[in-house]
Amino acid sequence: MVKKETLRVLDLNPPSLPKRHHVILKFLISFLLLGLAFRLFVSDSLSFFTSSVVEAPPPLVEETNVVIEPPLPATSAGDLLSVNESKTIPNEEISMSFNASNGECDLFVGDWVPDPSAPVYTNSSCRDIEAHQNCMMNGRPDSGYLYWRWNPRSCELPRFDPEKFLDLMKNKWWAFIGDSISRNHVQSFLCILSQ
Question: Where is the Trichome birefringence-like N-terminal domain positioned along the sequence (predicted)?
Protein backbone atom coordinates (compact mmCIF):
# COMPACT_ATOMS: atom_id res chain seq x y z
CA MET A 1 0.00 0.00 0.00
CA VAL A 2 2.78 2.33 0.73
CA LYS A 3 4.07 1.93 -2.83
CA LYS A 4 0.74 2.91 -4.37
CA GLU A 5 0.51 6.06 -2.24
CA THR A 6 4.08 7.17 -3.07
CA LEU A 7 3.40 6.63 -6.79
CA ARG A 8 0.33 8.81 -6.61
CA VAL A 9 2.27 11.61 -4.93
CA LEU A 10 5.12 11.47 -7.47
CA ASP A 11 2.71 11.15 -10.46
CA LEU A 12 1.88 14.92 -10.57
CA ASN A 13 -1.10 14.31 -12.90
CA PRO A 14 0.77 13.37 -16.09
CA PRO A 15 -2.37 13.47 -18.32
CA SER A 16 -2.93 17.22 -17.54
CA LEU A 17 0.71 18.21 -18.28
CA PRO A 18 0.46 17.85 -22.14
CA LYS A 19 -2.85 19.73 -22.08
CA ARG A 20 -1.11 22.66 -20.39
CA HIS A 21 1.61 22.65 -23.06
CA HIS A 22 -1.04 22.78 -25.81
CA VAL A 23 -2.77 25.76 -24.18
CA ILE A 24 0.52 27.67 -23.87
CA LEU A 25 1.44 26.82 -27.48
CA LYS A 26 -1.98 27.99 -28.72
CA PHE A 27 -1.61 31.22 -26.74
CA LEU A 28 1.83 31.90 -28.26
CA ILE A 29 0.59 31.25 -31.81
CA SER A 30 -2.43 33.51 -31.24
CA PHE A 31 -0.17 36.24 -29.86
CA LEU A 32 2.14 36.02 -32.90
CA LEU A 33 -0.81 36.18 -35.32
CA LEU A 34 -2.24 39.22 -33.52
CA GLY A 35 1.15 40.91 -33.69
CA LEU A 36 1.37 40.20 -37.41
CA ALA A 37 -2.16 41.52 -37.98
CA PHE A 38 -1.31 44.66 -36.01
CA ARG A 39 1.82 45.15 -38.10
CA LEU A 40 -0.04 44.75 -41.40
CA PHE A 41 -3.17 46.76 -40.69
CA VAL A 42 -2.51 49.30 -37.97
CA SER A 43 1.09 50.36 -38.52
CA ASP A 44 0.50 51.11 -42.25
CA SER A 45 -2.49 53.28 -41.44
CA LEU A 46 -0.46 55.29 -38.94
CA SER A 47 1.62 56.71 -41.79
CA PHE A 48 -1.51 58.48 -43.10
CA PHE A 49 -1.88 60.44 -39.86
CA THR A 50 1.72 61.53 -39.48
CA SER A 51 3.06 64.29 -41.65
CA SER A 52 6.47 63.57 -42.99
CA VAL A 53 8.58 65.77 -45.19
CA VAL A 54 9.77 63.96 -48.29
CA GLU A 55 12.69 65.51 -50.04
CA ALA A 56 12.92 65.20 -53.80
CA PRO A 57 15.92 63.24 -55.05
CA PRO A 58 18.57 65.25 -56.85
CA PRO A 59 17.96 65.47 -60.61
CA LEU A 60 19.82 62.98 -62.75
CA VAL A 61 20.36 65.53 -65.49
CA GLU A 62 21.16 69.17 -64.92
CA GLU A 63 18.14 71.27 -65.79
CA THR A 64 18.49 74.10 -68.28
CA ASN A 65 15.99 76.80 -69.07
CA VAL A 66 14.95 76.83 -72.73
CA VAL A 67 12.98 79.80 -73.98
CA ILE A 68 10.99 79.16 -77.13
CA GLU A 69 10.04 82.27 -79.00
CA PRO A 70 6.77 82.32 -80.96
CA PRO A 71 7.20 82.65 -84.71
CA LEU A 72 7.34 86.13 -86.11
CA PRO A 73 4.00 87.46 -87.35
CA ALA A 74 3.56 88.22 -91.03
CA THR A 75 4.36 91.80 -91.96
CA SER A 76 1.60 92.31 -94.48
CA ALA A 77 -1.69 90.81 -95.65
CA GLY A 78 0.10 89.43 -98.73
CA ASP A 79 2.45 87.43 -96.51
CA LEU A 80 -0.51 85.94 -94.64
CA LEU A 81 -2.19 84.99 -97.90
CA SER A 82 0.92 83.30 -99.25
CA VAL A 83 1.40 81.31 -96.02
CA ASN A 84 -2.22 80.14 -96.01
CA GLU A 85 -2.13 79.24 -99.70
CA SER A 86 1.04 77.21 -99.31
CA LYS A 87 -0.47 75.22 -96.41
CA THR A 88 -3.70 74.36 -98.27
CA ILE A 89 -3.58 70.84 -99.73
CA PRO A 90 -6.41 69.34 -101.78
CA ASN A 91 -8.08 66.20 -100.35
CA GLU A 92 -6.62 63.97 -103.07
CA GLU A 93 -3.11 65.06 -102.18
CA ILE A 94 -3.74 64.59 -98.45
CA SER A 95 -4.29 60.87 -98.78
CA MET A 96 -1.20 60.55 -100.98
CA SER A 97 1.03 62.71 -98.78
CA PHE A 98 0.03 60.83 -95.65
CA ASN A 99 1.46 57.58 -97.02
CA ALA A 100 5.20 57.41 -97.33
CA SER A 101 6.96 55.97 -100.34
CA ASN A 102 6.94 52.47 -98.84
CA GLY A 103 3.21 52.66 -98.04
CA GLU A 104 3.59 53.15 -94.27
CA CYS A 105 3.82 56.14 -92.00
CA ASP A 106 5.48 55.77 -88.60
CA LEU A 107 3.79 58.46 -86.50
CA PHE A 108 6.06 57.84 -83.50
CA VAL A 109 9.37 58.85 -85.12
CA GLY A 110 9.61 62.52 -85.90
CA ASP A 111 10.36 66.00 -84.65
CA TRP A 112 8.56 69.02 -83.25
CA VAL A 113 8.77 71.77 -85.86
CA PRO A 114 7.66 75.41 -85.72
CA ASP A 115 4.17 76.01 -87.10
CA PRO A 116 3.46 79.63 -88.08
CA SER A 117 -0.28 79.03 -88.41
CA ALA A 118 -2.44 79.96 -85.46
CA PRO A 119 -3.35 77.23 -82.97
CA VAL A 120 -6.62 75.39 -83.55
CA TYR A 121 -7.93 76.61 -80.20
CA THR A 122 -6.76 78.51 -77.15
CA ASN A 123 -7.66 78.23 -73.50
CA SER A 124 -9.98 81.20 -73.87
CA SER A 125 -11.75 79.88 -76.98
CA CYS A 126 -12.57 76.46 -75.51
CA ARG A 127 -14.75 76.05 -72.44
CA ASP A 128 -14.07 72.30 -72.10
CA ILE A 129 -10.68 72.84 -70.45
CA GLU A 130 -11.07 72.77 -66.67
CA ALA A 131 -9.61 75.58 -64.58
CA HIS A 132 -6.97 73.44 -62.88
CA GLN A 133 -5.62 72.32 -66.29
CA ASN A 134 -5.65 75.75 -67.92
CA CYS A 135 -1.97 76.62 -68.43
CA MET A 136 -2.50 80.28 -69.23
CA MET A 137 -4.85 80.95 -66.33
CA ASN A 138 -2.50 79.15 -63.92
CA GLY A 139 0.43 81.41 -64.74
CA ARG A 140 2.33 79.93 -67.69
CA PRO A 141 4.16 83.04 -68.97
CA ASP A 142 4.92 81.98 -72.54
CA SER A 143 2.69 81.01 -75.43
CA GLY A 144 5.38 79.72 -77.77
CA TYR A 145 4.37 76.12 -77.21
CA LEU A 146 1.15 76.84 -79.16
CA TYR A 147 3.13 77.34 -82.37
CA TRP A 148 4.66 73.88 -82.73
CA ARG A 149 3.40 70.74 -84.45
CA TRP A 150 4.51 67.13 -84.69
CA ASN A 151 6.14 66.20 -87.99
CA PRO A 152 6.76 62.47 -88.61
CA ARG A 153 10.00 61.84 -90.49
CA SER A 154 8.62 59.43 -93.07
CA CYS A 155 5.51 61.36 -94.16
CA GLU A 156 3.59 64.61 -93.95
CA LEU A 157 0.53 64.81 -91.71
CA PRO A 158 -2.44 66.79 -92.98
CA ARG A 159 -4.12 69.29 -90.68
CA PHE A 160 -6.94 67.68 -88.71
CA ASP A 161 -10.37 68.16 -90.30
CA PRO A 162 -13.08 67.91 -87.59
CA GLU A 163 -16.00 67.72 -90.03
CA LYS A 164 -14.44 64.87 -92.01
CA PHE A 165 -13.60 63.04 -88.78
CA LEU A 166 -17.15 63.39 -87.44
CA ASP A 167 -18.57 62.15 -90.75
CA LEU A 168 -16.31 59.09 -90.60
CA MET A 169 -17.25 58.40 -86.96
CA LYS A 170 -21.00 58.87 -87.39
CA ASN A 171 -23.06 56.03 -85.78
CA LYS A 172 -19.97 54.49 -84.17
CA TRP A 173 -19.27 53.90 -80.47
CA TRP A 174 -16.35 55.64 -78.78
CA ALA A 175 -14.62 54.85 -75.50
CA PHE A 176 -11.97 56.99 -73.83
CA ILE A 177 -10.11 55.09 -71.13
CA GLY A 178 -7.35 56.46 -68.93
CA ASP A 179 -6.30 58.72 -66.10
CA SER A 180 -6.26 62.49 -65.67
CA ILE A 181 -3.69 62.96 -68.44
CA SER A 182 -5.92 61.02 -70.80
CA ARG A 183 -8.87 63.13 -69.65
CA ASN A 184 -6.90 66.24 -70.59
CA HIS A 185 -6.31 64.75 -74.05
CA VAL A 186 -10.04 64.11 -74.42
CA GLN A 187 -10.80 67.70 -73.41
CA SER A 188 -8.31 68.95 -75.98
CA PHE A 189 -9.86 66.65 -78.59
CA LEU A 190 -13.31 68.06 -77.82
CA CYS A 191 -11.93 71.57 -78.23
CA ILE A 192 -10.55 70.67 -81.67
CA LEU A 193 -13.86 69.11 -82.70
CA SER A 194 -15.87 72.12 -81.54
CA GLN A 195 -13.91 74.67 -83.63
Answer: 104-156
